[in-house]
Every structure is written in C-alpha cells, then in structure tokens.
Amino acid sequence: MCSTCGCASGERRIEGVSRDDRPGHAFSSDPSGHHPSGLPFAPRRLVDIEMDVLAKNNQIAAHNRAHFAAAGILALNLVSSPGSGKTTLLTRTLEQLAARVVCTVIEGDQQTSRDADRIRATGVAAIQVNTGKGCHLDAQMVHDALHHLSPSPGSLLFIENVGNLVCPASFDLGERHKVALLSVTEGEDKPLKYPDMFAASRLMILNKIDLLPYVSFDVDACIAYARQINPQIEVIALSATRGAGMAEWLAWLEQQRCA
C-alpha cells in the first residue's frame, strides 16, 4: 500500500511484461515493490514510510531525468481528472507534430490498453502501463517502460498519467514539466480544490472551450485561481476536438524543445 494515497500497487504491469521480467536497475526496489504494506501503522510510522516511498521514487526520478537530459529528450507529464481530454489532445497533437518531430508516449491507466491503442493508431510508438488499483504512475514504472519503448535522442516523450488530480502531484517521474489539463465542464475552482497539482505544473491547459456557450464556467476566475496557487503558471485555452488554440499549444511545445 502507498502511504501517500493508500492505493494498492501489486497489480501494476507494463503491457505484455510481468513484474518479474522488469529490466535490472541500479536503484531496484525490494521484492514487494516500492509501496510498503501492512497498514495500519502509528502516525509517526506513516510519516516515515511516506518519506521513504517518496525518497526512493525521487532517486529513480533523478536517474530518469539525467537520462532524458543526456539524450536531449523532452519529457512532459500530462495530468488531469478523468475525462478532461488528455488522450484526445495527445492524438490531435501527434497528428500535427509527428511528421516533423519523433514522439513516443507512455500511457497510464488502471486497466485496458484502450488509450495506447488510440495513440498507436496515429503511427506513434506507445506503451501501456496498467497500475491495477494504483492511482498514479511512479518513477520506476516510467523507467521500466522506457526500457521497452526506447525513445530516440532528441525526441518528445509524452507521459499520460492516470486520471487523478491528487497523488500524481507528489510523484516526480523525471519529467521536465507537468502539464495540467482542466476542461471547462469541470468547474473553475479546481485549482483551489487541488492546489498541489497546479502548484507543481508549469502549464495549465483549459480544454473543451468549444463548450463554453453551453456550460457555466468563468475562464478569468479559473486563471486567477490557478495563479493564486502558482503565480508562474502559464495558461493555454484550446479545443482539442475543434482545433482552436492548438497552434499556441504546438508553439509552446516547440519553445520547450528549444529551451
């Protein structure tokens, strides 16, 4: 069990690969995985376990980040609630970008390979990581997926995290930036309700703006709330299905690649 979120991680698997087949790693986990089990613990013990879980994760994340830097790979961690449109945004992005930039995708979901299948239909290499009852990707999962995906030097790697605005905020994967998606069907106060995620994100994408005439959503208030939490957060409003704002998103990606 993960002391940070209480999720069970024993069922996780990378598409077609059992946990026993994982490649070796200098920071390998103990046989039971990263997440300690045996709750309940005393409050102090819970704090110690949480610190230990995050310390191990951060160590592997640092290894991932060093690998990305050495290979010139731009890794972005896409985070959101379920249904915000992450996969739709990714497929539209890849359709416009993949002809000139080598892209790969790591897909995180509790079950099925449906999203990875949608990505592969664009011609882009993708691998599915199923977390079982777990509610987030961690750095070890990303590391193991990289061994099978083998992104090219100088490429763009998208990591689509499990739909959840809580625990993915705490788990560094080694990415350059977190990109938080918020659809206009969710409510403009999400940054205030889930401040850790928006504090950790470099960019907030407001998706589904084509629905603004039909929903009650205050764009200005949402942006103000996000900048109340994170004054440096950048904001792009777009519609992944209709195409509005996509040029600004693609320009942002190019800016990050050149940074």
Write a structural description.
The chain has 259 residues and is of the alpha/beta class. Helices cover 36% and strands 17% of the residues. Strands 1-4-3-5-2-6-7-8 form an 8-stranded mixed sheet, with helices on both faces. Strand 3 (103-109), helix 3 and strand 4 form a beta-alpha-beta unit. Helix 1 runs parallel beside helix 4. The protein is globular.
In short:
This protein is of the alpha/beta class.
User: Helical percent range?
Assistant: 25-40%
Query: Looking at the structure, what is the overall shape?
Result: globular
Largest sheet: 8 strands, mixed
Strand-pairing-aware structural class: alpha/beta
Secondary-structure element order, N to C = EHEHEHEHEEHHEHEH
Q: Estimate what percentage of residues fall within beta strands.
A: 15-25%
Topology:
Layout: E1 13-14, H1 43-71, E2 74-79, H2 86-97, E3 103-109, H3 114-120, E4 125-130, H4 139-149, E5 156-160, E6 177-183, H5 190-193, H6 195-200, E7 201-207, H7 219-229, E8 234-237, H8 246-258
Short descriptors:
single chain, 259 residues, alpha/beta, eight-stranded mixed sheet, 8 helices, 8 strands, 17% strand
